[in-house]
Amino acid sequence: MKMTWPGEFGRLSAVLLAILLRFTFQGAYCQLVVSPAGPTLVNALAGSNVTLAVSFSGATDPAVTWFMADLPVVTWAITSGAPPDIADNRDKVLRIETDGSLSFVNVPLEYTSNYTIEMTKSGLGTSSTTFTLKVFDMIQDVILKAQSGSAQEGSDRFTLQYSMLQGVVEDQTWFFSGMAIKSNSHYLVEERNLVILGPNRSDTGRYTVLLTNPFSSVTTDTNVTVLYGPDEPVLEARPARPFYVKGDSLSVSWQADGFPTPTAEWVFGSQTLSDFPQGVLNLTNVQTSQGGVYTCTLLNEETREKSQKSIILNVYERPSGDPMCSVQSVNNVDLQYLCRWSGGTPQAQLSFPALSNTSSGAGNLSLTVTASHNLDGKPVKCVADHPVEPNNCSITAGSPRMFLPAVRTTVDSDGKIVVTIHCVSEASPQAVVSWSRGSEAVTSTTPYQISRDATQLEIRDYNVSNFLLQNYSCICRNPLGSQRREIQLRGPSISDSSLFTNHNGTIVTLTWEVPPTSIVTGFDIQMKGPQGLSRNRNGTQTRGSSNTFHTIQQKPGAARSADIFNLDPKLSYSFRVVPKARMTEGRPSEVQRIGPGEGLSGSAIAGLAAGIPCGLLFLVLLAGLIYFCVYFNKNKSRQAKYPKSRAVEKVVTTPTETTPHNLLTGGLKSPPDYNRLQQTPSERSVALPAFVPPPPVRTATTV
Ligand SMILES: *[C@@H]1O[C@H](CO)[C@@H](O)[C@H](O)[C@H]1NC(C)=O
Ligand SMILES: *[C@@H]1O[C@H](CO)[C@@H](O)[C@H](O)[C@H]1NC(C)=O
Ligand SMILES: *[C@@H]1O[C@H](CO)[C@@H](O)[C@H](O)[C@H]1NC(C)=O
Ligand SMILES: *[C@@H]1O[C@H](CO)[C@@H](O)[C@H](O)[C@H]1NC(C)=O
Ligand SMILES: *[C@@H]1O[C@H](CO)[C@@H](O)[C@H](O)[C@H]1NC(C)=O
Ligand SMILES: *[C@@H]1O[C@H](CO)[C@@H](O)[C@H](O)[C@H]1NC(C)=O
Ligand SMILES: *[C@@H]1O[C@H](CO)[C@@H](O)[C@H](O)[C@H]1NC(C)=O
């Protein structure tokens, strides 16, 4: 081996350095050192034997002191021969080994501590080392429960706490439904507790705690129920309807979460409704008084928490009957439309949309409008709005229709002629009737009497001439218009007469007609014949012969026919009818003849003689009549309604007249010359035997 200088020098330096170091650290090399001969953390089961083992070096026979925490519990000089000095109350447990290790016999729980061994040797200083001893026992009989009270939603916190009969816990872990719980804003894990901050219903469930130490582990669980609610209930009416009709049945149930299940109570008005088990409001045959606000109050019997909700139940009832429309006159100027449909719940809302958009009324509506022509004949509808049943009615206002006055003549108990004129015009609102005579208004002063409803004027006088001096008129008026009619009264007159015989000629029937405005209170049936026949008071017939007419019968004003009996068919007779207004006689009817001398009656001969020309005339008049009827029908809507004529029954239908029936001419056929009558009434007034007034009950003339 070849040795170079730097190599030899290096080796030499190292040897020298080693020698130097050896001498420099002579003292340190001899220092007392104590060190653990195993782990410094020792877990021990209570009651077991355990040793905190140490080893030392650098000195022989050092003095040893064990501290339990800061308290010296054992002091000894190793191999000194003297026994160790052990704290009095610990000598049953603590033993010191010859190497300084500390043994514990049947170590109790309270020996869990830090233990420090300190070794000293004069001249060699002090050395120490520290152990931690943890003494555990088996965890047993763990109980998990709420610290106080029950969990309740909305409260601040809820604490679960475990307790146990024995055991030292090194570690605790909490689980909720199997999931480990970590401390966070909701959970707080404290020494023996789990705190749930702001518990809510979702915290209901199984809580488990796992307790462990090196020698045992125990899990315990408990079920936690968080009390909550009642929530605000949801109310449901069955059947669900915006309103119910009186007599309906319904129920209202509630739905709300809560634990324990809340109990319900219903309040209507100020009244608590008690008889509803399960809280279902069950109403059968509801009345309108039961409509209103129902409040359901829920109570959590545990927490005494409440919640409530209201529902409005409308119970309606249709107003009875149907709406009634009418129209009235206001001061004969304005029209007041009325609509009425009262009762019901709620009241019907009434309106006349055609008249006003804004006016309406509950149950009763009256609307006054200015009468105008466009309302004449226009149906105006009243719309009656009611939730149960909409309805309506309609009313048409109309101006007075055309009409014909009716004239009736009677004789009163004083023997005065009573002429009654009746003016009725169909109108809506009802027409107000006013009367005038000539140009002056007629009021209810003698000889006039106006009926309460003004439709009838009664005139009383003894002298028929006084009736004929003036024309009367009536005006029927309502806000929409008026109709005026003039009545020209006529003296007693006969417009038409005829005669019929029975087959063997012993009985004749006279019939006649009277113009509608003629004043007639009775008729004299007169006869002329070579052998006139009359009946005396004893009922025996006397035969006489006369060439002048004499009265054989008197008939009341209502009569339109007379029968004459016991005629001799071999003889000739003439008959006529004299109309009378009390004492005043009118122009007699044409003379009707019967007898073998004529072969045929006068009228029959006249009928035959005029047969062909009259037939032609009849056809012409018939054509005219048809035209008139068509025209009449065309204008019927605006035509007056004529009172029904008194049917005149004829025994035999052999009309000898060639003029249309007088009803169709409206009684306008020219009367006999009454100027003459008026001028010289005495001329016409033939003194008659005692006048027998006809019964005043019958209508003499109708138009
Ligand atoms: C512990 O030590 C004591 C005394 O040395 C002994 O009697 C006992 O049996 C030991 N216990 C165990 C569990 O070893
Ligand atoms: C033991 O000592 C350690 C560290 O110095 C300390 O944290 C612990 O609390 C002590 N143990 C006991 C039981 O005094
Ligand atoms: C908790 O509840 C469950 C069912 O939800 C049941 O099986 C269990 O026995 C309950 N535990 C306790 C401690 O009541
Ligand atoms: C309501 O009451 C009627 C009779 O009282 C009964 O028949 C019906 O079942 C009840 N309905 C409810 C929901 O309780
Ligand atoms: C009602 O209102 C409508 C429009 O809102 C209007 O055209 C009509 O003229 C009104 N009718 C009445 C009678 O006011
Ligand atoms: C009837 O009245 C007229 C006119 O007023 C009169 O001229 C006549 O004398 C009166 N006749 C009777 C019977 O009173
Ligand atoms: C009555 O009326 C008729 C027809 O309108 C007329 O001719 C007559 O002169 C009137 N009489 C009186 C008295 O005014």
CATH architecture of the largest domain: Sandwich
Which class best fits the helix and strand makeup? Answer: mainly beta
* Computed Rg: 69 Å
Q: How much is the average pLDDT?
A: 82
CATH class of the largest domain: Mainly Beta
Low-confidence stretches: 1-6, 19-28, 534-542, 599-609, 636-703
Task: Report how far the terminal alpha carbons are from each other.
Answer: 181 Å
Q: Helical segment tally?
A: 7
The name CATH uses for the topology of the largest domain is: Immunoglobulin-like
Number of folding domains?
7
Q: Would you give an account of this structure?
A:
The protein is mainly beta and 703 residues long. The strands form 14 sheets. It has a 6-stranded mixed beta sheet with strand order 2-11-10-5-6-7, with no helix packed on it. Strands 46, 47, 49, 50 and 51 form a 5-stranded antiparallel beta sheet that branches. The chain is rod-shaped, with a radius of gyration of 69 Å. The site of one 2-acetamido-2-deoxy-beta-D-glucopyranose (NAG) has 3 residues, from loops.
Question: What are the salient characteristics of this protein?
Answer:
Immunoglobulin-like, 7 helices, disordered C terminus, 6-stranded mixed β-sheet, about 700 residues, binds 2-acetamido-2-deoxy-beta-D-glucopyranose, mainly beta, about 40% strand, 5-stranded antiparallel β-sheet, disordered N terminus
